[in-house]
Write a structure and sequence with these properties.
By secondary structure, the chain is α+β, with helices and mostly antiparallel strands. It has eleven helices and 18 strands. The relative contact order is 0.16.
Length: 371
């Protein structure tokens, strides 16, 4: 049952997570830190030491990859920085003088977990590794990752390089909203042509969850002597997407299978109550216009479904002509005071009026402000 509250003022809220935990879920996980969240809402399904700051090894590359994607220009070829690719650990196989694209490097970052690819991408995007690390920390701050600090693009051990299971899950949920990122992390292998001269080679994904778990769609493995085994995984079933994170876990594949199974036993996809009888006046027409919302779903535990609240956000009056299907407001679905789903409210019909707006009303209407 959804509790319904109607308000007719502009409202801006930032979506966030909320937590729940069972002793059974915690005891079944051998990781030092772990969490399972529902990807869209950020709702916590289970957690264990989720706020403990720990090294995260190559799961760092989730941030490196999403920043590279957001920098754009993915298919322009360039010569890799010779110094950047001189790095220990896992490799994409880059050599001095190789010609690559940022898209090539993304596969190298996310499949074989190439440290050379991560450094080469960092220099390509920001001009230097240190400048890219600043971008990483700025992005972490913008995403609200309050317990995360980056020192390297690759995730190699370094003083002050850490995150938490909670922050890493939130970062993964953000990255998985990006179509390019999702497309790459679900690949078991990818054949590319790069080099100098370019030649064909196949890169293989180190994430065994893609073959071990039904519905797995990513995301990233990691290991260093300090961090030990780290894993971020994502899976989809019956309209539900879950993200699981473990840090310092000797049995990560099996733990993730258990964690995801538990998550899917608890979280289901439910239809939202999107019916709406609210109306708003159309200035200068003497008429009102009704609104409607399209069908929508949300993934929740049964307990959170009972707590779900709905708010109708609609101005008292709109100025200028209204076209059928035009967005006039929103339905906000909230848990514990935080927005977890937004559904547009659309005009049921067209209402034409003469354009008699004053200059201030015209300026406001350009920004979609009609109240």
């Amino acid at each position: 049952m959804v509790k319904i509250t109607a308000i007719f003022i502009a409202l801006a809220v930032i979506a966030g997570g909320f937590s729940g935990m069972t002793a059974k879920a915690q005891s079944a996980v051998s990781a030092v830190s772990a969490i399972v969240i529902e990807a869209e809402t950020g709702a916590v399904v289970s957690e264990k030491n989720a706020d403990e700051k720990r090294a995260m090894a190559s799961t760092t590359k989730i941030m490196t990859a999403i920043l590279t994607i957001e920098a754009g220009d993915l298919d322009r070829e360039f010569t890799v920085d010779s110094y950047a690719i001189m790095v220990e650990g896992t490799s994409m196989g880059l050599q001095q003088g190789d010609r690559v694209s940022r898209r090539d490097l993304l596969y190298g970052i996310l499949l074989p977990s190439g440290n050379d690819a991560a450094n080469a991408a960092a220099v390509s995007v920001a001009g230097s590794i240190s400048a890219f690390v600043k971008l990483m920390n700025d992005k972490a701050k913008a995403l609200g990752l309050v317990s995360t600090q980056f020192v390297t693009p690759s995730g190699l051990d370094a003083d002050g390089h850490y995150t938490t299971a909670r922050d890493l899950a939130a970062l993964a949920a953000y990255a998985m909203k990006n179509e390019t990122f999702r497309e790459i992390v679900c690949c078991k292998s990818k054949t590319l042509e790069f080099g100098n001269p370019p030649y064909s080679r196949t890169l293989y994904n180190s994430n065994k969850m893609l073959t071990k778990y039904d519905g797995a769609i990513g995301i990233k493995t990691g290991f260093t002597d300090n961090a030990r085994r780290c894993l971020v995984s994502a899976a989809e079933r019956n309209g539900v997407t879950l993200i699981a994170v473990t840090l310092s876990d000797a049995d990560d594949w099996n733990d993730h299978i258990r964690m995801l199974d538990y998550g899917f036993s608890r979280v289901k996809s439910y239809p939202l109550e999107t019916g709406c009888t609210a109306v708003t006046s159309v200035a200068g027409s003497g008429k009102s216009v009704g609104v409607y919302a399209n069908d929508a779903q949300i993934s929740l535990t049964p307990e959170n479904r009972q707590k779900l609240e709905r708010r109708v956000i609609l101005p008292r009056m709109v100025y200028g002509s209204v076209k059928q299907g035009q967005k006039l407001g929103e339905l906000l679905f909230m848990l514990d005071g935080k927005v977890v789903k937004t559904v547009p409210l659309l005009a049921r019909e067209t209402v034409e009026v003469e354009n008699k707006l004053n200059i201030w009303q015209k300026i406001l209407s350009l920004f979609g402000i009609y109240a």
